[in-house]
Design a protein that fits this description.
The complex is a heterodimer. Chain A is an all-alpha fold. Chain A contains eleven helices and two strands. Chain A has helices spanning 2-20, 22-27, 43-74, 77-92, 95-122, 137-161, 165-173, 178-207, 210-215, 236-243, 250-290; strands at 31-32, 39-40. In chain A, helix 3 (43-74) packs antiparallel against helix 8 (178-207) and helix 10 (236-243) crosses helix 11. Chain B is an all-alpha fold. Chain B has helices spanning 3-18, 21-60, 63-67, 81-113, 117-131, 134-149, 154-178, 182-190, 195-206, 208-223, 227-230, 250-258, 263-294. In chain B, helix 4 crosses helix 10 (208-223). The two termini of chain B are 35 Å apart. Classes of the chains: A mainly alpha, B mainly alpha.
Chain lengths: 291, 302
């Protein structure tokens, strides 16, 4: 299956790679589909993808960690199951519905409650220096964060659950408070697993399409490299979604599939890394517990 | 725990002991409050999404909305009948492809494969497959079916969606078959039944509800996918005509409606979102509750 995926993506993208050259395609910034003046460069969208995912990680990971900590270490057992249930429902909402909600509801909250105050107070700092509109990398990052929270937090919870109780008891017996026990006994033990969970979330954020397409602003060419937090941008996947049906020439299509190839390689690396980390983590302590 | 680790804890705690007890208690409380805030922060969006979808969606609902084809753009007439029909057809076909493949692979991994190199590789690649962006899988459908047959078609959509669904079914099937007690299998062997029969009649029957849960969750997941459909079934405002032609689907319709500049289109979008969310969340809630009763949990990442 995986090889089928790889094969078809590569076959579709050969044409553009031979037209622009692999390096040229990866570092070019023009995007012009007009016949006779074709020029395709993927760099702005790679940057857009990375920036929006980075924002999602900065917001999503601490919150997920907080949720996982609460559910596995702090909350009374009575609440733990319902909370995880609700969080998992969040994972079940289709991304198109996140997109609809973000486009018509959430972006106004973000614009009025977060972006405007930031702009008014800090517009002399370059990254805040753009009049916020609500459809930008910042909003996209936040909604992506909401989307990846369920995934990261449920894996973190699982990983923290396999931390042997003896670790916690050791900390408590030395007089640690509950938070100190979490910090010095649970976190270090679960470190690799938490990291893996975060990377897995990153993989989701990088590949998410429809949601990003609806709220990132969709600009093309050099303008898609966000210079401020409130700039419009474009990601690899959103550009594919936007232009696929309108692609006029084979070369244009091939360029879009080429973007898909870049995306595929990016997420494969992220995913394989994450799986290896999580697997290592979940296996070792499970064996430890039996001793 | 060995001595080195114990010494390590003492060193770490020594630093904390220097602070006053009160300060440590305050930090502990703050951490707890932070964790609770995180939980609330994650629940607010879910609440808001459900509220907005129901509030805006109910207004659009009517019998005509559910069965009619779309009126002219911006008129606010007609409905999303073709989209509902298309979703049912494409998702139905996709699950017809994905269910046998997924369940059989799951059975193989759990009952026959053991822990050799090949099964491990299958498991690993399978989990990698769950993490691939759905738009890339859409490209697969485009290159392998649309380009070959020469038109956007139901088959391409169904193939793409089944590629998304298969790994989910595989994972859930394997995990549920694994928790079937070994004594049941041994009872079968003791009676001299062949392995194939034991697997089908005893193990699979015992794990039936779990496997069905996996299939249901897979269906709910692919019903909400949009990205692969853009490049496979294309979308149309007409009812289903043939398996080789384009067809509409709910998520795709919502996407197109949301990008039109008309109030009425947005209202339609919300209505379609309500229908979709009722289908998807309905299946999810029921299945997860059932699964919970039976004593196993389904992880969020599948």
């Amino acid at each position: 299956m995986v090889s089928l995926v790889a094969f078809s993506v590569l076959r579709g993208s050969i044409e553009i790679f031979s037209y622009e050259g692999i390096i040229g395609f990866l570092t070019g910034t023009d995007w012009n589909a007009v016949e006779g003046r074709e020029s395709f460069g993927a760099l702005p969208y790679i940057v857009g993808t990375l920036v929006s995912s980075a924002i999602a990680m900065v917001i999503g990971v601490p919150i997920s960690l907080g949720i996982a900590t609460f559910v596995s270490e702090m909350s009374p057992p009575r609440f733990a199951a319902p909370i995880s249930f609700v969080i998992e429902l969040l994972a079940a909402v289709p991304s198109i519905i996140y997109g609809l909600w973000a486009l018509f509801v959430f972006r106004f909250w973000i614009r009025d409650l977060i972006e405007m105050p930031l702009y008014n107070t800090f517009h002399w700092i370059p990254i805040f220096d753009k009049y916020p509109f609500g459809l930008d990398v910042f909003t996209a990052g936040i909604v992506l964060a909401i989307m990846i929270i369920p995934i990261i937090s449920s894996i973190c919870r699982e990983v923290m659950r396999v931390v042997p109780n003896s670790q916690r008891e050791a900390a408590y017996s030395l007089g640690a408070t509950r938070w100190e026990a979490v910090r010095i006994a649970v976190f270090p033990y679960a470190k690799a697993g938490i990291l893996g969970a975060a990377i897995l979330g990153l993989g989701r954020a990088v590949g998410e399409t429809i949601l990003v397409t609806m709220i990132i602003g969709n600009v093309i060419g050099i303008a898609a490299i966000p210079t401020t937090l409130f700039s419009q941008s474009q990601t690899l996947s959103s550009l594919i979604a936007n232009e696929f049906n309108e692609a006029s020439s084979d070369l244009h299509l091939s360029a879009l599939i080429g973007l898909g190839a870049v995306l595929l390689i990016l997420t494969m690396i992220i995913n394989i890394g994450a799986r290896l980390l999580v697997r290592k983590m979940v296996k070792v302590p499970a064996g430890d517990k039996k001793k | 725990m060995n001595n080195a680790e114990r010494k390590d804890y003492r060193l770490v705690l020594h630093g904390h002991m220097k602070k006053t007890y009160r300060k440590r208690i305050i930090i502990d409380r703050l951490a707890t409050i932070f964790a609770i805030v995180c939980v609330v922060a994650a629940i607010i969006p879910l609440g808001s999404i459900l509220l907005e979808v129901v509030k805006n969606g109910v207004a659009a609902l009517s019998l005509e909305f559910l069965v009619a084809t779309q009126g002219s753009i911006g008129s606010g007439k007609g409905g999303i009948g073709p989209a509902i029909q298309g979703t049912i057809i494409v998702v139905g076909l996709a699950s017809l492809i994905a269910t046998p493949v997924g369940v059989l692979t799951g059975i193989y991994l759990s009952e026959f494969a053991g822990n050799g190199i090949f099964p491990s590789a299958v498991r690993f690649l399978n989990s990698v497959l769950t993490g691939l962006p759905s738009i890339v899988i859409g490209i697969v459908g485009y290159v392998t079916v649309v380009l070959v047959l020469g038109s956007f078609s139901v088959w391409a959509g169904a193939l793409s969606l089944s590629i998304i669904m298969i790994p989910i079914v595989v994972i859930v099937t394997e995990e549920t078959l694994r928790i079937v007690p070994h004594s049941l299998r041994e009872a079968g062997y003791a009676l001299g039944i062949s392995k194939a029969k034991i697997t089908l009649n005893i193990v699979l029957m015992t794990a039936k509800s779990g496997v069905l849960t996996g299939i249901g969750l897979g269906i709910a997941r692919i019903a909400g996918e949009t990205a692969p459909l853009i490049m496979t079934i294309l979308g149309t405002s007409l009812f289903f005509s043939s398996l080789e032609g384009p067809v509409d689907a709910l998520p795709l319709r919502i996407w197109r409606l949301a990008s039109q500049p008309y109030e009425s289109a947005h209202s339609f979008g919300w209505g379609a979102a309500l229908v979709l969310i009722l289908m998807v969340l309905g299946v999810n809630v029921v299945l997860r509750l059932l699964a919970h009763k039976k004593g196993f949990t389904v992880r969020a990442e599948v």
